[in-house]
From TrEMBL:
InterPro entries, A to Z: Cro/C1-type_HTH, Lambda_DNA-bd_dom_sf
Protein's recorded name: Helix-turn-helix transcriptional regulator
Lineage of origin: Bacteria, Pseudomonadati, Bacteroidota, Flavobacteriia, Flavobacteriales
Species assigned in the record: Flavobacterium silvaticum
Origin: domain of life: Bacteria
HTH cro/C1-type domain: residues covered: 16-70
One of the record's GO molecular function terms: DNA binding
Length: 80
């Protein structure tokens, strides 16, 4: 299960990175608008740091998307 969560964290970071690129935004501006340090935003994008839900909300708002646009399809698969 831990590996699956790590994969999802990396996938979420990729989505954030791709949306920033698609919208021609700069990481520094997104970080500022999300009230984050750009170093931390880069860690989220690389998937090397977990984020709180409130951080996800701020990042989504700064990019101009809904949280569900970032999270859809990332549901943890339960081992069975």
């Amino acid at each position: 299960m831990e590996i699956q969560i790590k994969i999802e964290v990396v996938e979420l970071g990729e989505r954030i990175k791709n949306l920033i690129k698609e919208k021609n935004l700069k990481i520094m501006n997104v970080a500022h608008d999300a009230n984050l340090d750009s170093t931390n935003l880069r860690k989220y994008i690389r998937g090397t740091q977990d984020m709180r839900y409130t951080t996800l909300l701020r990042i989504a708002s700064a990019i101009g998307v809904t949280p569900s646009q970032l999270l859809d399809g990332l549901q943890t698969k339960k081992e069975g």
